[in-house]
Specification:
four-stranded mixed sheet; seven-stranded mixed sheet; 14 strands; about 350 residues
Length: about 350
């Protein structure tokens, strides 16, 4: 990580319990919450106390184990069923981020295939699996940063949308990872972070995170993006994502589609930074990606609302995917398959 980075841990597992950074309290205060029950974990993920596709995946892996330490006296098959029940419940907390279901599927597959003869043995195997998912996320972030950093040149300006940094992962992020590595390497650059309404993840989280890390960042309103791009103030845009279809259509925070259209109009390279695990080869195109619709109270308590949390960016608007295995360029329907193994 860059020397100046001063971002608190997103989550950690200690003393058989998951503790998360409550990101709804940022930037006013840094507040941690120990998760004491499975319903609390579900609500923490759903309410965006822990957020960002990679971080959600890690939180789900640990979260499915919440409270199970108190049940180690159960027969192993009863303990297995209890874990599967909790895992299935956590899997309903947010539908769009594929990392959540991937982590749960890995854990559930282990639980079902384990030859453990006691609840304690199975519990230890599941904890070890969750820690592996956690460590892989940290390593993946670093690799994405190293792959994407060469795109960032001295004195260039980068745009990003929403928050896909250290706060969205358990490492240095996805979209922000190339920026952190470039910063670490002494490259001078500027970042425009848009506010990302309605929950202001760009304003509350990205601008704060980059500033904490000593990176030159300017916050802009969402409706300023077209103006900034039209004036030639941006050299490239890097965003994260929650799910990529097999053809490269990409679901990310609502507003990403608009940014991609503007980038296309003004010939600004538009990259998606994501782990290869975010690609869902079971979905042919973005039309099949489930889009979470959130409570309208996030927008207004007075009027009827429509509040989708994500939109889908067609693959033809994407310059390339920055992954831990390299940068993938078009044609995506062919080249994304290289990431299967």
């Amino acid at each position: 990580m860059p020397d100046k980075i001063a971002i608190p841990r997103t989550l950690y597992w200690d003393d058989n319990a998951l503790t998360i950074l409550d990101q709804t309290a940022l930037p006013e205060r840094v507040s941690y919450e120990k998760q004491t029950g499975i319903k609390q974990v579900w609500e923490s993920i759903h309410a965006l106390k822990v957020r960002g596709a990679p971080a959600i995946g890690v939180a789900a892996a640990y979260g499915a184990l919440t409270g199970l330490f108190a049940n180690l006296a159960l027969p192993v098959n009863e303990f297995r069923e209890l874990f599967i029940e909790q895992a299935n419940y956590i899997n309903t907390s947010r539908p769009t981020a594929v990392n959540l279901s991937r982590s749960i599927n890995i854990m559930a597959t282990l639980a079902k295939s384990s030859k453990a003869t006691s609840a304690k043995q199975l519990y230890d195997e599941l904890v070890a699996c969750a820690k592996t998912i956690h460590n892989e996320d940290i390593e993946m972030c670093r690799k994405i940063g190293e792959v994407g950093a060469p795109l960032i040149k001295d004195n260039c300006t980068i745009h990003t949308h929403c928050n896909a940094g250290a706060l969205a992962t358990s490492g240095i992020g996805t979209a922000l990872a190339p920026m952190y590595v470039a910063h670490e390497n002494g490259i001078k650059f500027k970042v425009y972070a848009d506010e990302t309404r309605p929950l202001l993840q760009g304003g509350r989280l990205t601008a704060w995170e980059l500033h904490q890390s000593g990176i030159d960042v300017a916050l802009i309103c969402d409706n300023m993006v077209a103006d900034v791009f039209s004036r030639g103030k941006v050299n490239l845009s890097i965003v994260g994502c929650d799910r990529v279809a097999a053809n490269g259509d990409t679901a990310n925070k609502i507003g990403t589609l608009g940014v991609a259209i503007i980038a296309k109009r003004y010939n600004v390279p538009f990259y998606v930074a994501c782990p290869s695990s975010t690609i869902d080869f079971n979905i042919a195109s973005g039309a099949e990606i489930p889009i979470e619709e959130r409570d309208g109270h996030e927008i207004s308590k007075l009027f009827n609302t429509y509040n989708p949390a994500f939109d889908v960016t067609p693959n033809e608007l994407i310059t390339g995917f920055i992954t831990e295995k390299g940068t993938i360029m078009p044609p995506f329907a062919v080249n994304l398959k290289l990431l299967r193994h």
